[in-house]
Write a structure and sequence with these properties.
Chain B: Keywords: ATP-binding, Cell membrane, Membrane, Nucleotide-binding, Transport. Chain B: It is found in: Cell inner membrane. The complex is a heteropentamer of chains A (305), B (352), C (332), D (544) and E (335). With 352 residues, chain B is of the alpha/beta class. Chain B has a domain of 226 residues: 3-Layer(aba) Sandwich (Rossmann fold), CATH 3.40.50.300. In chain B, helix 4 packs across helix 6. Helices cover 75% and strands 0% of the residues of chain E. Classes of the chains: A mainly alpha (305), B alpha/beta (352), C alpha/beta (332), D alpha+beta (544), E mainly alpha (335). Bound molecules: adenosine-5'-triphosphate (2 copies), magnesium ion (MG) (2 copies) and nickel (II) ion. Nickel (II) ion binds next to loops of chain B.
Chain lengths: 305, 352, 332, 544, 335
């Protein structure tokens, strides 16, 4: 941006919370707004929906088996006569919470490793070899070992659902951070040579705070991209895990699982595949657009425009 | 040199507008000037005053969108560059008009050898064979003073120092013996000692090849040493135009005057305090309806804020876009003089 | 700038400072050589004065500036600032010294974090070194903005919303935040437009007067250095080749390199310009990793002698306060 | 006429990894191997023994089996040739025994040769199998698809530790069956062609055959029933309505057969509480809730087996109340009360026994909650069953937590994993089991006390419920000594009824095999007692 | 550059040894038993004997050293013998799969063709498609083409292949009958019609994988092109009078390919790793399918060897990517 725009209107004096600016910019991004509205809708639906739609998602009603959409079951019922709408709502709760938290964990882990490797040259070789190691490890045996070792202790500590939730999030997080770490490392390597990092050092800012204040905010963009991909990855991985019996109990619906269970009936009952498939894709798409918007909004250079 | 000859390049009423997301930017506003064969026209002006955009607009190098270029015509050897098709323009660019860009570090493609980049226009425009082009490229490198030219042809740009890269850029621009060379701040990024080498080189080449040159800079020192005539730009307009000595002796636009004062010198008197031009350059949101310098001008008066001054003749080959008459020391009479877009200015003493 | 701000107290004392960057190569990453970016420089800076440091690009000016502030771990030499030897203090211990010495960077765009507001940027040193309440901090930031001539209303803006000159003011305000005594200005005006350069230089002078600052002013713009500096050091390939007071240096340069450098500066005056005798140097600067034998300048020197190719000249005071490193003036 | 019908395409979605049945006991390997290797006698679709390489099936009546049940004499058919043209002799039969029992080889069928002390060669075509103990049922060695005859000439160097490294032999054994292996790609595809030396010159009708592996049951079913790319698809365990829908496309039909496979719930008699450390799930600690018979009974009563069959298996399942449902002479009718679901009865039973309903809908007694962990292997139908059963049990006031475990872990014997079905670190678990051939002796012996998995046995053993009564052990011992079929049947039924009435095992569904055959494939006769491909020599193409 | 390469290769040795050890311990620790697929009717003692025959009786470190010996000494010898008809490997124990009791390496060799045909080809296609798409999307940023590209690639990411694959089968095999639903690995291309059949049977798996890979690569390509389109040298090229085609496809593309080529190179190991789910859905039975069956069957030597080969490829292609970077971008010089 050139000098020319400087004398635009002077802003009101009161120090306005920065987040308002971010929000203002975010609002101008059409895709991001649409994504946000959809995402909020989905979140509200899956968390508040069960209070309105009171059918128990695990309740089996044999008379309703394989029923198509009706007033009693707007999305139809599955092969055991469970209400698909209720299952979609309950499944969404799990999928979205798992997707979000696992994604965040993997981001945190990946960013942490990436920043360490990029910023401290001494750690670089070792951490990148560690990344290679994780990339090379066969996932399934790894998951089985983790789950074998930690399922019961966690269950005891946090109870059944919370324990498994923690376990799954942990498992997904620990097996999907490598990509982020690499990207972040590359960016940090470039960023740490920037003059403002040197400026911070000349002030006497310790490395820890240089990273927090100067490096991290400037690698938002690759992190956002990883985040959107991460959420899709986490939702799908969760379904694979519970299918393998490594995840939630088998009667516990999640989107991924609903999709997986229904895929054999794609010809007989296509709607059963479409609902979870659509839910996953649209959520991922929404998060992607939100990520785009957020990236733009968090960048003051774009915000000014 | 070449006084009175027909101009090689004649720009009339050139305008460039950028349409951006947050509104339009009128970067170039009714710029008119002409260039005679063999002369060196200096262009000075503050950063953002539209120097680069003007030059790039005339040969269609401005990406469009976002830019829109319009005007009464850019006459180059009988062709109107504004109306020329892309193909015609491509035949002119590189072949008849050479361009040297500001930043030698980034203007060369890092993944091709220097030789390849010099040979590219030769092969395209002059239809030379590979061997011929290579021979010519070697000559060119020698011409711009790079030792061991043969070997260096197969080096990559990053293996050259900044000054050498700028010389490579010049070699590329000169490859097809252009009639006009446009050099956009070619020495700004360089050291004084290297800059001196390049200026010297320019002098020699012009004597040898006799082409016309447009030299953009904001370093008045460079202008003083090299230009025949000078255009001063401000806010997307030409605010003053004069032969070089005339300009330094009798600056007739308050911006030029201020500019001359801000620059310290290594040789002359040392001022205790540097003059500054207070205020900010304008944002070119719309076509100017007032004098764009008015806000920063110590001489400004009411008229300056309501009307955009045309370029008044103030001397032989000297005009300035200002309502204040410095000779008289008072505002001009209401008669508005020469219309903007006059095709030709006479005169132009040269310093070479 | 007033001469009476000068004193005879030495604030910064640099002795034999060397900063070599190692070059590693080979299968085992053995150290095969070094870039001698700064290769033994010595000078003093008196309290309240401005020392100009000029020289060609790549001759080690920035490295010298950064090394003096210990942004690098130096190879050799001593640095004494305000009586404290900091040449080999470990980085964490340097933290409490940082407020005395600050830096203003070359590229105002690159040296400001694009994601921090102006208030945050100027406030950063205060966060690090001062214990202030939120309101106090804000007040301090605003007063700093006043001091460098930035409108208080701009506090919540971001760097890209400013012009180059204003950005450089932000950088200066940041450097001033901790009331330093000594500021290294690393080409603070190189990235700026001519009309803005003057603003920044004036500002630096005003601040020097107001706060009694001491500057090391690095630049390759000799005319600006002539304007601002009290004394000037000329560097070539990691060495100081000439050091003299401003008047002496510009009027009577001794070292052939200084002469060439001065003659190369274009003159914004066609009449003067015509008369200037240019000494055109040939060839390129040798690589600092492999400097020539003898005098560093011998490969390009128009007055080169045989001895220059053999023996490295020593710095000598040929007149009070005028040091030259050249065989032409060697008296022993 | 041999080779006149072109090519037959068979799909086994679990791909065979070897052709040698002695190196892998997996069904897929055994069945595909049966196209090449043949035993002396097989079971037909009804479970009757029919001679294959032998002249006839030896019995006590025809003198083939000695009166003391200690030896059996087999006579080979005359003029049998291996596919490479060499004659089949008693040497080969004897070698097969030596091969499987050689030291260090890890033969997976060695149990078939248990108690065999010698295989005596009488002449080229006659062998006598000597047992060390009386064998009331002497048809282990050389009978059925687990124990076919291999060629001595080919495998002579492959005994003992060399068994594994004879890859060429294991992948392309020379046999007497209808087909010869041309190319074997492990876990992928087997290409075969008709055996030129097959004993019936008119067979097989197909000149070539491939057995393709990989994918899942749905894809296999689709390829036969919907696209018609394949002629025969094995083991289609899919939801009945999906299968019905596929069949309705008219390209092929489903075929099914019932053996002895029963889907059942095992009830843990011991306490799986992790707090018990290495005494977990051992006889040292009886199960706090499930030791109570009325609870076990209530769990069984709450189940509607009819519905389970309908949802999970359709035509491939039948309601059963026995763990030993077949052959017919062993099938008890004493427990048929379980056929009808009785939720109210179950509730009443629990109530009567002092299990009172808590405020959260879960019954309690003496501070113990009626709360169960229900585990099984991962498999779509099993997970549906889990969900349904959970609901029924919830209705009678039992809280249920479900867990599914990957079958490679669940059925693996890894002593390091807590999730194996032998360890049974859960309260109830569901899986299916059957027995080989038609004789239940070994099967019923599974529930002896000493069969209970425990740390001392590295958790090996088949008595998952850890059921342990003296009466039962006595019955097992008695059966081992009884030769008379009637009496054996009586004993087996008694044992079955004991298990059922103690509710140590809750049988759910008597499962058959379902496969699919193309409408143009003739001669298919699915067999639950032996290989499904047992009569592939008789298969032919139906011409329109 | 040579030094750099040698140094990286030397460094790779301890790394890989360490990785192999970790994989080995992991597999050893993992629950699961090679005997799990043996019917329950086979008594436990027999299973125990089978387990011993597989060498599972030995302590862990012996098994690991044994594997190392077999992998690094015996298998190369076998390969050497195979090539030159020598007999160094005579009588030495190779790495044997638990499932099939055949040498792991020969199974790998057997699976290679279909993996390369399907997964490899789809990767090639994906690259070939993604690059032009990326170029056009960037050149016409925010055009409908670009928007559509974003949308499709997001869908490509978020729909699991187990679903899209089945969907394709239902549409194209079952309903339309255009393509076979099951891949025939024994098929040999000898003439035109067999070639057509090969194309048909590859169509769907290749499509599914191509979509997935192309989505990623085109995103990278687009970003990289966008970065480069605004560079100064582009203007220089235009100023030289070069045609738009030369400018975009020569000057810009060559620079944009630098990061993309490394991304592509880093993706290559995944070809050899196979596309597990897609291979299963279409029964391509390549390396991916083999790995997954081996894992389910707890076939430790197979899993160990395959994952180790995979690790070698990852390390190797990381190196190749770095070297490529250096070659493509003359500014980067290692050493
Ligand atoms: N692509 C663009 N979109 C919008 N505005 C632009 C664009 N390019 C240039 N401008 C605007 O056009 C005006 C003139 O720019 P130009 O580059 O010609 O200045 P200049 O005189 O060459 O300055 P400098 O000395 O810094 O090179 C500036 O205000 C600039 O912001
Ligand atoms: N971190 C580093 N590692 C290796 N060499 C370096 C490093 N920093 C600088 N150099 C080298 O040291 C020499 C001096 O660099 P320096 O940046 O100090 O020059 P300068 O005089 O400030 O030039 P300029 O005027 O271009 O800023 C150069 O050759 C440079 O390549
Ligand atoms: Mg410009
Ligand atoms: Mg510098
Ligand atoms: Ni002239």
């Amino acid at each position: 941006m050139s000098d020319a725009t400087v004398t635009t209107t002077v802003k009101p004096k009161a120090p306005r919370n920065q987040w308002w600016d971010v929000w203002d910019q975010f609002k101008t991004h059409k895709g991001a707004m649409a994504g946000l509205i959809f995402f909020v809708f989905i979140v509200l639906a899956v968390y508040l929906g069960p209070f309105l739609w009171k059918i128990d998602p695990t309740y089996i009603d044999f008379r309703a088996r394989n029923q198509g959409p009706s007033l009693a079951h707007p999305f139809g019922a599955d092969q055991l006569g469970r209400d698909i709408l209720a299952r979609m709502l309950a499944g969404g709760q799990v999928s979205i919470s798992v997707g979000l938290t696992a994604m965040i964990l993997s981001l945190v882990l990946g960013t942490f490793v990436g920043v360490l490797a990029g910023y401290w040259k001494r750690l670089d070789g070792m951490l990148m070899r560690l990344t290679d190691l994780f990339l090379a490890l066969p996932l399934l045996p790894l998951l089985m070992v983790i789950i074998m070792l930690f399922r019961d202790p966690l269950r005891k500590m946090f109870g059944l659902e919370a324990g498994i939730f923690i376990l799954i999030v942990f498992v997904i997080g620990i097996t999907s951070w490598m990509q982020t770490a690499r990207i972040v490392r590359g960016d940090v390597l470039a960023l740490k040579e920037r003059e403002y990092v040197l400026a911070a050092r000349s002030i006497g800012t310790p490395s820890r705070r240089v990273v927090l204040r100067h490096i991290l905010p400037n690698i938002m963009s690759p992190i956002m991209v990883s985040a959107t991909l991460g959420i899709a990855n986490a939702i799908i991985t969760e379904s694979a895990l519970s299918f393998l019996g490594l995840g939630f109990p088998p009667d516990y619906p999640t989107w991924g699982r609903l999709l997986f269970d229904a895929k054999d009936m794609i010809q007989q009952y296509p709607e059963r595949v479409i609902w979870p498939g659509l839910a996953i894709s649209l959520t991922v798409l929404a998060v992607n657009y939100i990520g785009d918007g957020l990236r733009d909004a968090l960048d003051p250079r774009i915000r000014g425009r | 040199m070449a006084d009175g000859a027909a101009p090689v390049l004649n720009v009339r009423d050139l305008k460039t507008v950028f349409k951006t997301r947050s509104g339009s930017v009128h970067a170039v506003n009714s710029v008119s000037f002409s260039l005679k064969p063999g002369e060196l026209l200096g262009v000075v002006g503050e950063s953002g005053s539209g120097k680069s955009v003007t030059m790039m607009s005339l040969i269609g190098l401005i990406p469009s969108p976002p830019a829109q270029v319009s005007g009464a015509g850019v006459d180059f050897g009988g062709t109107d560059l504004l109306k020329a098709s892309d193909d015609e323009l491509r035949k002119i660019r590189g072949a008849r008009i050479g361009f040297v860009f500001q930043d030698p570090m980034t203007s060369l493609n890092p993944v091709f050898t220097v030789g390849y980049q010099i040979m590219e226009p030769l092969r395209k425009h002059m239809k030379m064979s590979r061997a011929q082009a290579r021979g010519r490229a070697k000559e060119l490198l020698e011409l711009v003073g790079i030792p061991d030219a043969e070997r260096r042809l197969s080096d990559f740009p990053h293996q050259f120092s900044g000054g050498m890269r700028q010389r490579v850029m010049i070699a590329i621009a000169l490859a097809c013996d252009p009639e006009v060379l446009i050099a956009d701040e070619p020495t700004t990024a360089l050291d004084v000692t290297i800059q001196a080498q390049i200026l010297e080189l320019m002098h020699e080449l012009r004597a040898k090849l006799g082409m016309a040159v447009i030299w953009i800079t904001h370093d008045l020192g460079v202008i003083a040493g090299i230009a025949d005539r000078v255009l001063v730009m401000y806010g997307g307009q030409i605010v003053e135009h004069a032969p070089v000595r005339e300009l330094f002796k009798h600056p007739r636009h308050p911006y030029t005057r201020a500019l001359l004062k801000t620059v310290p010198s290594v040789r002359g008197e040392r001022a205790e305090r540097l003059e500054v031009i207070e205020g900010q350059p304008p944002i070119l949101r719309a076509e100017p309806s007032s004098c764009s310098f008015a806000a920063r001008c110590p001489f400004a008066f009411a008229r300056c804020l309501s009307e955009n001054p045309a370029r008044f003749d103030v001397g032989p080959g000297h005009d300035a876009a200002c309502f204040y008459d410095f000779e008289a020391g008072a505002p001009r009479a209401t008669v508005s003089a020469a219309a903007v877009g006059r095709p030709e200015f006479e005169g132009g003493a040269h310093a070479g | 700038m007033l001469d009476d701000t000068k004193s005879n107290k030495v604030l910064v004392e640099v002795r034999d400072l060397k900063m070599h960057f190692p070059i590693h190569a080979g299968v085992l990453r053995k150290r095969v050589g070094e870039v001698k970016a700064v290769d033994g420089i010595s000078f003093d800076i008196y309290e309240g004065e401005t020392l100009g440091l000029v020289g060609e690009s790549g001759c080690g000016k920035s490295t010298a500036g950064r090394a003096i502030l210990r942004l690098y771990d130096i190879t050799e030499g001593t640095i004494r600032i305000d009586g404290v030897e900091i040449g080999h203090t470990p980085q964490p211990d340097l933290r409490k010294m940082r407020p005395t010495m600050q830096m203003v960077f070359q590229d105002p765009q690159a040296s400001l974090n694009p994601r921090m507001s102006v208030a945050a940027i100027i406030g950063e040193p205060l966060d690090e070194h001062a214990r202030l309440s939120k309101a106090e901090k804000r007040e301090k930031v605003l007063s700093l903005m006043d001091a460098v001539g930035l409108n208080r209303d701009f506090a919540n803006r971001y760097p890209h919303e400013f012009s180059g000159g204003q950005r450089q003011r932000i950088g200066i305000a940041r450097a001033l935040a901790l009331n330093p005594k000594f500021i290294v200005c690393d080409e603070p005006i190189a990235a700026l437009d001519v009309s803005i350069q003057a603003q920044v230089v004036n500002l630096l002078e005003d601040l020097q007067e107001e706060f009694g600052l001491t500057y090391l002013f690095i630049s390759h713009d000799l005319s600006m250095v002539r304007h601002i500096a009290d004394r000037v050091a000329v560097m070539y390939l990691g060495r100081v080749v000439e050091l003299a007071s401003r008047e002496t240096l510009f009027a009577d340069p001794k070292h052939p390199y200084t002469q060439a450098l001065l003659s190369a500066v274009p003159e914004p005056d066609p009449w003067l310009e015509e008369k200037v005798e240019r000494i055109l140097l040939q060839g390129d600067v040798p690589s600092p990793s492999n400097p020539p034998k003898g005098c560093n300048f011998c490969t390009r020197c128009p007055q080169v002698m045989d001895i220059c190719r053999e023996i490295d000249p020593l710095g000598q005071e040929i007149a009070p306060g005028h040091q030259v490193t050249c065989h032409l003036y060697q008296t022993t | 006429e041999r080779g006149s019908d072109g090519h037959v395409n068979i799909i086994y979605w679990q791909a065979p990894s070897t052709m040698n049945p002695y190196l892998s006991g997996g069904t897929k390997e055994l069945e595909v191997g049966s196209l090449v290797l043949e035993p002396l006698a097989r079971y037909d679709a009804e479970g009757n023994m029919v001679p294959f390489l032998a002249e006839s099936v030896p019995t006590v009546e025809n003198g083939g089996v000695s009166e003391d049940l200690m030896n059996v004499t087999w006579k080979l058919k005359e003029g049998l040739l291996w596919s490479d043209g060499k004659p089949l002799t008693s040497e080969d039969v004897r070698f097969t025994w030596e091969y499987c029992t050689s030291e260090g080889g890890g033969c997976s069928q060695s149990e078939k040769y248990n108690d065999v002390t010698d295989v005596e060669i009488v002449d080229d075509l006659t062998v006598i199998v000597h047992f060390g103990v009386p064998k009331p049922f002497p048809y282990g060695p050389f009978v059925g698809n687990q124990a076919p005859i291999i060629q001595k000439a080919q495998f002579a160097d492959c005994t003992g530790e060399a068994m594994a490294s004879c890859t060429d032999q294991n992948f392309a054994p020379i046999g007497t069956g209808p087909f010869v292996v041309d190319e074997f790609k492990t876990n992928d595809v087997v290409s075969m062609s008709a055996n030129p030396n097959y004993r019936d010159p008119a067979k097989p009708a197909f000149a070539t055959a491939t057995v393709k592996g990989g994918g899942d049951a749905a894809a296999a079913g689709r390829s036969v029933l919907e696209t018609g790319e394949f002629d025969y698809a094995w083991n289609l365990q899919l939801a009945p309505d999906v299968l019905a829908d596929m069949e309705s496309k008219g390209k092929g039909k489903l075929v099914s057969a019932f053996g002895t496979l029963v889907e059942r719930i095992m009830v843990n008699y011991t306490d799986p509480d992790p707090a018990l450390g290495d005494k977990r799930a051992t006889a040292a600690h009886p199960h706090p809730i499930l030791s109570d018979k009325s609870v076990r009974q209530a769990l069984s009563m709450a189940i509607d087996r009819e519905l389970l069959v309908e949802i999970g298996y359709g035509a491939a399942g039948k309601v059963t109340c026995n763990v030993l449902p077949a052959p017919a002479i062993y099938a008890s009718t004493a427990n048929d009360a379980c056929m009808v679901q009785d939720i109210e009865g179950a509730k009443a039973l629990l109530e009567a026994d002092g299990w009172v309903m808590g405020s959260d809908g879960i019954r309690e007694k003496d501070g113990k909650k009626l709360s169960l962990l229900f585990q099984t292997s991962t498999n779509a139908v099993r997970q549906d069953f889990q969900a349904i059963i959970k609901q029924w049990w919830n209705e009678i006031g039992v809280e249920v937590e479900l867990r599914n475990i990957d079958s490679s872990v669940f059925f693996g014997g890894d002593a390091g994993s807590p999730d194996t079905f032998q360890k049974f670190f859960a309260d109830v678990e569901m899986y299916a089991n059957n027995f080989d051939g038609t004789d239940p002796e070994a099967y019923m012996a599974n529930w002896e006390c000493k069969q209970a998995p425990r740390p001392e046995t590295q958790w090996q053993g088949n008595n998952m419920p850890r059921y342990c009564t003296e009466e039962y052990d006595a019955l097992v011992a008695e059966m081992a000594k009884t030769g008379d079929l009637e009496k054996r049947a009586e004993l087996a039924k008694t044992m079955n009824d004991m298990l059922m009435q103690d509710y140590a095992i809750i049988p759910l569904v008597y499962r058959g095999r379902v496969s699919a055959a193309s409408n143009t494939l003739g001669g298919v006769e699915i067999n639950a007692w032996d290989s499904e491909l047992w009569n592939a020599a008789d298969w032919y193409r139906i011409k329109e | 550059m040579l030094h750099y390469t040698i140094r990286r290769l030397l460094l790779a040795i301890p790394t890989l040894l360490f990785i192999s050890l970790v994989i080995f311990l992991l597999l050893d620790l993992a629950p699961g038993d090679p005997m799990a697929s043996i019917p329950l009717t086979v008594p436990p003692e027999v299973k125990e004997r089978m387990r011993e025959a597989l060498g599972l009786g030995e302590p862990v470190h012996i098994r690991f050293l044994n594997w190392l010996y077999q992998f690094f000494i015996v298998e190369p010898q076998v390969a050497f013998d195979h090539l030159f008809g020598t007999d160094f490997s005579e009588g030495k124990q190779r790495i044997i799969s638990f499932q099939s009791r055949s040498p792991v390496m020969s199974v790998v060799a057997e699976r290679m063709p279909q993996t390369l045909w399907v997964v490899g080809l789809s990767y090639v296609f994906a690259t070939l498609i993604a690059v032009p798409i990326g170029i056009i999307s960037a050149y016409r940023q925010y055009s409908w083409f670009d928007q559509l590209g974003t949308f499709v690639s997001m869908i490509g990411f978020s729909i699991p292949t187990f679903f899209s694959g089945v969907l394709l089968i239902v549409i194209f095999s079952v309903t339309l009958g255009w393509f076979p639903s099951i891949y025939d690995t024994t098929h040999e291309v000898t003439d035109w019609s067999s070639f057509v059949f090969q194309m048909k049977q590859m169509a769907m798996p290749v499509f599914v994988l191509t979509l997935y890979n192309a989505a990623q690569v085109s995103r990278f390509m687009r970003a990289s092109m966008l970065d480069n389109l605004n560079q100064d040298y582009v203007r220089t090229a235009r100023a030289k009078g070069m045609s738009e085609k030369v400018v975009v496809l020569l000057h810009v593309l060559r620079n944009s390919m630098i990061p993309v080529v490394t991304v592509i190179a880093l993706g290559v190991p995944s070809i050899f790793g196979g596309a597990i789910i897609t291979e299963q859905v279409f029964q391509v039975n390549g390396l991916g399918q083999m790995l997954i069956t081996a894992i389910y069957a707890s076939d430790a030597p197979m899993v160990q060897t395959l994952t180790f080969i995979f690790a070698v490829l990852i390390v190797l292609f990381n190196l190749i990517a770095d070297i490529l970077y250096g070659i493509l971008d003359p500014r980067i010089r290692y050493d």
